[in-house]
Amino acid sequence: MRKSITVLFLFAIVALVSSQSQIISSQKTPVQKTSIPKDTLKKTKAIVLQQEIKKDTIAEKMGALVPYKKDAHASYYADKFHGRKTASGVPFDMNKYTAAHKKFPFGTKLRVTNQANGESVIVEVNDRGPFVRTREIDLSKKAFMEIAKNKGAGVMMVTIEVFKN
């Protein structure tokens, strides 16, 4: 008899546990499966380039720039001077980067920057002039046209800087 009571008792425990698990499983909220759409665009890898830090090659070759004059009037040589001797004895070539200045020694390198557009050019002084009181520097035609905003103008406002070795 004891065996039957034990078996019955075990059977009751199993029934109780199974009913408890059914109650617990019925109380769980169902989890809804959702699908996340895959990204159809191909992802590119980011490429990081290392750049070499370059020094200012102009400053290395020619020396440091020293400001000379701001708001200076610049003009260019007329074509009729092409081929004539300059004050330094070198024939004037309107297709080279040269300039005439009243004070700088011959061979002095200048950076002339147009204030209207920020364009600049490096010229070498090889002549005296300009002989107009309001003008500070005369540029060769090539140098003037390279930095001119308006190609029809003959005068512009510039900033002059001198290369010091």
Strand-pairing-aware structural class: alpha/beta
Distance between the termini: 120 Å
* Unreliable sequence segments: none
CATH class of the domain at 63-164: Mainly Beta
For the biggest sheet, the summary is: 6 strands, mixed, barrel
Helix content, binned percent: 10-25%
What's the overall geometry? rod-shaped
What is the count of helical runs? Answer: 3
Mean pLDDT: 81
Please state how the strands of the largest beta sheet are arranged side by side. Answer: 1-5-2-4-3-6
Tally of DSSP β-strands: 6
Assembly type of the chains comes to single chain
The helix-strand sequence is HHEEEEEHE
- State the CATH architecture of the domain at 63-164: Beta Barrel
* CATH homology-level superfamily of the domain at 63-164: RlpA-like domain
Q: Assign the CATH topology of the domain at 63-164.
A: Barwin-like endoglucanases
C-alpha Rg, in Å? 44 Å
Q: How much of the residues is beta strand, in percent?
A: 25-35%
Function: Lytic transglycosylase with a strong preference for naked glycan strands that lack stem peptides.
EC number: 4.2.2.-
Pfam families: DPBB_1 (PF03330)
Keywords: Cell wall biogenesis/degradation, Lyase, Signal
